[in-house]
């Protein structure tokens, strides 16, 4: 062996060993010491795990490891940390972690829990199709305004008597996304709509309960104990509903008359009929449609429910919004998307509702796609990562009064609306919510339309101080059930 070859081999070996040492020498992020079998579960409030994790971040920093039973997860806390992971290193943190309770049901199909190339294609197709049907454009405005009319009529029908807003808000929002999916709306008393929304809400709540979380940490034990029984039954019924809708569209399908998302998917299936490896198969149609109806209903209606509760709780803020509405929207005219730019206070209130309500506190878990070097730590490939949205929306370095409802977070000294980088209620990066632009439009038009027509009050005998701002248990945080009285603004 010549001296030159010998030296070359030594140099290559040296750099390999240095690089290997660097990788293996990096540690996982710090965290509390786990106990056998239970990990760190004794340190977590499983009814409100986001609160426990926020407290842990005070001790262990913005990147830390928590053992949920036998499962090791990394938690990201704070705006800068979450942004670095989801935006700056988007590819490294871009996969979706499995939820064992759904794994056997969903099988990687759809948009929310999809993986790899299937997820990329479904997301791209869904975004394109939603835009074709008006999402992010003024054409969707008329769909929302059409739904505002029966919503206002329903509220007015209570003639000032106390009522709960939960069911009716859910129904109105479901009809908007339903019109895009199915090409039609449902009456609020339609048994199919009522059953569908009941099942969706039950599963959303169940997903955030301690029993479901424990199932996800100990799936084998959970199966033996039947912890997944109710949720699986609900999903099976939801599949039956969706199967019926899909079959109806198949029977009436006309390539020259595409009425909604399902028809558009069927057309794509037809175009790819000769491709045996196509991702446009029945499983992706079923779960993409279910993802859209679930995500497109629960989050927006929960946000509006919080918005009305906060207006009842803070009547002086409600009054200022109504004064701005009177100034910029003529009597008898429904609000329009273009009105928003002239209404900085209303815009600030809506943004602050979304920030304060914090309806998806833990975000959906991500998964590292490779061994990741992040902020001085080593996070192995396939590690579940929780980019906590609570820690961003309540970040003390980004918000003056993070735990208080304060519309001035989004206003400057002159009362003009101010965008905030840390406002990411729809998450960020590759997995940002596909329906973000639709949700923003719905929230503005419904909220403004309701406050234009009515003033919201607590029921007789209940003061604003009596109203609780505590969240109910669930994966999506709804306010605790409440009732309101509405008085028309004549």
Describe this structure in words.
There is one protein chain. With 490 residues, the protein is an alpha+beta fold. It is 52% helix and 7% strand. The chain is built from 17 helices and 9 strands. The strands form 3 sheets. The protein has a 5-stranded mixed sheet, with helices on both faces. Strands 5-6 form a two-stranded antiparallel ribbon. A two-stranded antiparallel sheet has the order 8-9. Helix 6 packs parallel to helix 17 and helix 13 (282-313) packs across helix 14. It starts with a helix and ends with a strand. The relative contact order is 0.15. The model is unreliable at 8-18 and 20-24 (pLDDT under 50).
How much is the radius of gyration in Å?
25 Å
Q: How is the quaternary structure best described?
A: single chain
**What are the secondary-structure elements, in order, as H or E?**
HHEEHEHHHHHHHHHHHHEEEEHHEE
N→C terminal distance: 97 Å
Overall outline? globular
């Amino acid at each position: 062996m010549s001296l030159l070859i010998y030296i070359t081999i030594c140099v290559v070996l040296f750099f390999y060993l240095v690089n290997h040492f660097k990788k293996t020498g990096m540690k996982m992020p710090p965290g509390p010491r786990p106990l056998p079998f239970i990990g760190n579960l004794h340190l977590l409030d499983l009814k409100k795990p986001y609160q426990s994790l926020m407290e842990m971040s005070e001790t262990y920093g913005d990147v830390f490891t928590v053992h949920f039973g036998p499962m090791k997860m990394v938690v990201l806390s704070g705006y800068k940390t979450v942004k670095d992971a989801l935006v700056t290193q988007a590819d490294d943190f871009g996969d979706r972690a499995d939820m064992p309770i759904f794994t056997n049901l969903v099988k990687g199909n759809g948009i929310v829990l999809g993986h790899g190339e299937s997820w990329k294609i479904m997301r791209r197709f869904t975004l394109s199709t939603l835009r074709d049907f008006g999402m992010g454009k003024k054409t969707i405005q008329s769909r929302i305004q059409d739904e505002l009319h029966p919503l206002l009529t329903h509220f007015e029908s209570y003639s000032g008597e106390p009522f709960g807003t939960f069911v009716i808000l859910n129904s109105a929002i479901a009809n908007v996304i339903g019109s895009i999916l199915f090409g039609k709306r449902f009456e609020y008393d339609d048994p199919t709509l009522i059953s569908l929304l009941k099942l969706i809400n039950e599963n959303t709540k169940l997903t955030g309960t301690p029993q479901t979380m424990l199932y996800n940490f100990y799936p084998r034990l959970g199966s033996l104990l039947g912890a997944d029984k109710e949720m699986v039954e609900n999903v099976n019924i939801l599949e039956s509903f969706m199967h019926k809708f899909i079959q109806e569209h198949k029977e009436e399908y006309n390539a020259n008359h595409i009425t909604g998302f399902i028809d558009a998917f069927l057309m794509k299936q037809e175009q790819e009929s000769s491709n045996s490896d196509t991702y446009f198969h029945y499983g992706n149609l079923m779960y993409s449609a279910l993802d859209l109806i679930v995500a497109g209903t629960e989050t927006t209606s929960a946000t509006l429910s919080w918005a009305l509760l906060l207006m009842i709780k803070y009547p002086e803020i409600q009054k200022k919004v109504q004064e701005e509405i009177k100034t910029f929207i003529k009597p008898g005219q429904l609000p329009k998307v273009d009105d928003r730019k002239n209404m900085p206070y209303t815009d600030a209130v809506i943004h602050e509702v979304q920030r304060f309500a914090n309806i998806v506190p833990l975000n959906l878990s991500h998964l590292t796609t490779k061994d990741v070097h992040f902020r001085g730590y080593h996070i192995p490939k396939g590690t579940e990562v929780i980019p906590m949205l609570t820690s961003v929306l309540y970040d003390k370095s980004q918000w003056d009064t993070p735990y208080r409802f304060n519309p001035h977070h989004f206003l400057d000294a002159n009362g003009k609306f101010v965008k905030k980088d840390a406002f990411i209620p729809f998450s960020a990066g590759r997995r940002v919510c596909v329906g973000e632009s639709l949700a923003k439009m719905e929230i503005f038009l419904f909220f403004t339309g309701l406050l234009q027509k009515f003033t919201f009050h607590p029921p007789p005998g209940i003061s604003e101080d009596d109203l609780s701002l505590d969240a109910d248990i669930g994966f999506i945080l709804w306010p605790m059930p409440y009732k309101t009285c509405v008085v028309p603004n004549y």
